[in-house]
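Retro notes, structure queue

What went well: the backlog is down to a handful. What didn't: a couple of records were mislabeled last round, so from now on we paste the full input next to the output in the thread. Example, using FAD-dependent oxidoreductase from Metabacillus mangrovi:
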Amino acid sequence: MRLHNGDLFWPKTLDYSREFKSAAQIKDHYDVLIIGGGMSGALAAYTLSQEGLTIAVADKMEMASGSSSANTGLLQFSNDIMLHELAAQIGEDQAVQFYKLCQKAVEQLGVTAQTLSRDVNLYRRKSICYASSDEDAGKLKKEYDMLKKHGFPADYWHEEEVAERMPFRKPAALITYGDAEVNPFRFIHGILEHLEQRGVDLFENTEIETVEELEDSVEVSSSIGRFSASHVLYATGYQKPPIKRKIGSVINRSFAIATNRVEDLSSWEDRALIWETKRPYLYLRTTADNRIIAGGLDENVPEAPEDEDWITNRAEKILDEVQELFPDLPLSIEYQWGASFGESADNLPYIGRHPSKRRQFYLLGYGGNGTVYSMLGSHLLKDLILGVPNKEAELLKLDR
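Corresponding output:
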């Protein structure tokens, strides 16, 4: 399944291209074999390798070439489902617990970036979620009250304050603090380079053929040879996972653009991450070289768009929406793409042990917060693999 089409921006930001292929042969045995070399696989390998485990990462394509290369790089503790909505769905205690996990994951992503030798353009930002309609102003106020009740950093702007602080007028806005932006492609490559230095074996263009769980190991045959591991961790992104019939997920597609470089972004308060209350929503951010990345116009179609004219149509629509918010900025499209993304039925990622195969684990960050889910999931799975009790495991388990 092809996960994106169009002209991607992030791969153009690497100063060189390289292959990840371990010089060593496949080891006789690994503690963990991770299947998938995108954001989830890289973060899982990073987290597990810090525990002294022997790790291999195998991807059927090049590393970071799937949905991660189309990722727009917004890192937020808020989710597509608001905290007060999630509380109504699963209970207030569990909803707050999940939001706290996401908040902690954003912090952990920042710490991870600081350990890498490559600059991955991770910058801390606040987020501005504006009310798309008058009716949604009350929804944002309710969310603000819930966030403040549980100690999350947030402010609420009325219409006049929005107009004073930004070059557009909206009925209200919810401001949250402690979020971040990142260049996801540079981030993954920085992690993989770090992993190579730590002795993690990386195998690109490696097709997994069969997986057989035995009493003491998992035996995996592949296009380059046989792997033996104590545990297998699937970080397959939006490719169809082996457990696909057991979870409630759907694959849709979205569109994104990267604009020209903009000389003056002073009208954009603190270069905040911006999104809105309507669904599907427009979201936008700035880049290290003063571009604007924006996305949205989600469609209930699993395949990435192949029609270049349709990608152009959607890209121009996104640009029009950005230009409405920032009418004085001279904007044009330099990169445009469409990509598949996964969502779950209950707005939570699927992270945990296979219901009946105790040596196999899944890190499936379905939802608009995939990188954050990948980070929190890597720590949750680390605990499960090491036999450490984790109270969040029940909330995100595959057979919930």
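Agreed that this is the format going forward. Reviewer comment attached to the example: DSSP finds nine helices and 18 strands in the chain.
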